[in-house]
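Checklist before submission:
- one chain only
- standard amino acids only
- sequence pasted in full

Submission:
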Amino acid sequence: MESDPIVARLRAAGCVFAEREAAFVRRHLIDPGDVERAVAARVSGLPLEQAVGVAEFGGVAVAVAEGVFVPRRRAEAIPEVAAVLRPDAEVVVDLGCGSGAIAAVMTRRLPTAQVHAVDLDPASVVVARANGRRFGFTTHHGSWWDALPPALRGRIDLAVGYLPHAPSARIDGIHGDFRAHEPRSSVDGGRDGLDHVRAVVSPMAEWLAPGGAFVTLLSAEQAAHVPARIAWQDDDDAVIVLDRAAVAAWLS
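Returned file contents:
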């Protein structure tokens, strides 16, 4: 018989990792009322992080909310690669920031850098701004580079981002918990999944400083078709680095 009532409720709701999820709830919530609301929301099908209001990512805990993209653990490789690539970066931008999780990690990895974050989704911007006040980055509302202050043009040492890159035909294969509670725009990358990467790359040379680069993650299959340096790869994913030369090659 199950001795932990939270684990029992989560397991009965079909949560495969019920013990791990119960520990996550207790790690971030203390008030019994908050715990009850979170467990009830999770049992109803809300993603764990949205139910609790917190996501763990890259060694930090960031606020999230219902309807806002939940940062994926595999994207932790993006700030890891970026911080090693340009430890001297003075200006960093997180494009399509969602909750601002990558921006938050970058403030910890590069504490002297000026970090900015951008997103088009109003709900995400609200959450990212709250995280920005806590971690020390500035959030802008708008589409990709256009949302940034013009004064940053040509001064960005590092751009990072976990861009929507799921091919449209594969969206229905995303786990139902997330598919039902995140904007489709946060995952749908068009026919081949690369529409948003192209949109970011096209004007990128205007925004990057000399020696600047953009670091993102794609599927390993997609990365094989992009003229970029692969900085990290496993069986499923690859972190790629695009500099001015790579952009010129892609656009030529």
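Reviewer check: The mean pLDDT is 95.
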